[in-house]
Specification:
Layout: E1 2-3, H1 7-14, H2 20-28, E2 32-33, E3 36-37, H3 39-48, H4 58-75, E4 81-85, H5 91-103, E5 112-116, E6 130-133, E7 139-142, H6 154-158, E8 168-171, E9 186-191, H7 196-206, E10 210-218, H8 227-240, E11 245-246, E12 252-255, H9 259-263
Parallel strand pairs: 4-5, 4-9, 5-8, 9-10
Antiparallel strand pairs: 1-6, 2-3, 6-7, 10-12, 11-12
Helix pairs in contact: 3-5, 4-5, 7-8
Length: about 260
């Protein structure tokens, strides 16, 4: 059985035999952060966390990482805590730490929190289902990945943060473990949990605790494999009435208005 959309199959075929590194260097080699060149930093974090990417999203992974790094730089002057919800192998979290260290060489991970089951995905629900077409023309609904997919043990991930011993690791199923967080005001939250229920739970927890000017970045707003992340985001912001941006990479971004903006 195949997904009704053939975009992923097409991109895998198109990229066969392509010199991905040359294209990536052309596209991203000139990108700059406030702390310096972005692309070498990105590659270093990918290698350090042993993170790869499927052919169809190899370029988008780098572009998404650049967006994340720029938002981290933007909110860094606010202070406040930062959280990564959905850690997997630690790439985005390590990149965040490196960017924070680039602004503050004394940064050792304080008020940086990493939350994950470290046992893979939680159980998908109805909102996470994709439609698949069979040979006889029938359509079935099932998730793209089962519970437990993407499992990486916490100890192996923690080893990759040796330069940041003060990073806080919280193991367990989201959103249940959010209650273990210390009460903080948050300047940046990255939600990359793929599925409907943990995405919705993270929004419900962090949204009222964001600092003015703080950012929530959702990695899965328009993921072709994980529709639940986008459905939860839309449902939540329809309910609370918040405005957000949607990026070409499929990420969505909420930025809490500052006091000055509210007064206008």
């Amino acid at each position: 059985m195949q997904p009704q959309s053939h975009d992923l199959v097409l991109l895998d075929r198109v990229h066969k035999g392509v010199d991905i590194k040359t294209h990536a260097q052309i596209l991203f080699g000139g990108l700059q952060l406030e702390m310096g060149p972005f692309y070498p930093l990105c590659i270093d974090c990918l290698n350090a966390t042993r993170t790869g990417a499927a052919a169809w999203k190899v370029f988008r992974r780098v572009q998404r990482a650049f967006h994340l790094a720029r938002y981290v730089e933007h909110v860094a002057p606010l202070g406040g805590a930062m959280a990564e919800c959905g850690v997997f192998q630690g790439f985005s979290a390590l990149l965040t730490c490196r960017v924070r260290q680039g602004r503050d060489p004394a940064f050792r991970g304080r008020d940086q929190f990493l939350l994950d089951s470290f046992e893979g995905l939680s159980a998908p629900v109805t909102e996470d289902m994709l439609e698949y077409s069979g040979e006889g023309g029938g359509v079935t609904r099932r998730p793209s990945h089962a519970k437990g997919h993407f499992a990486v043990g916490m100890d192996s991930v923690r080893e990759r943060f040796g330069d940041f011993p003060e990073v806080g690791f919280i193991k367990g199923w989201l959103p249940g473990t959010l209650s273990q967080l210390p009460e903080r005001k948050w300047s940046f939250v990255h939600i990359d949990v793929d599925l409907y229920e943990p995405t919705l739970g993270c929004l419900e927890y962090f949204y009222p605790r964001m600092m003015p000017g703080g950012v929530i970045l959702n990695d899965d707003f328009s993921s072709p494999l994980f529709p639940g992340g986008g459905r939860a985001w839309i449902e939540f912001f329809d309910r609370v009435g918040g405005s957000y941006a949607v990026l070409d990479t499929g990420q969505s971004v909420f930025m809490k208005p500052s006091f000055a903006e509210r007064a206008v």
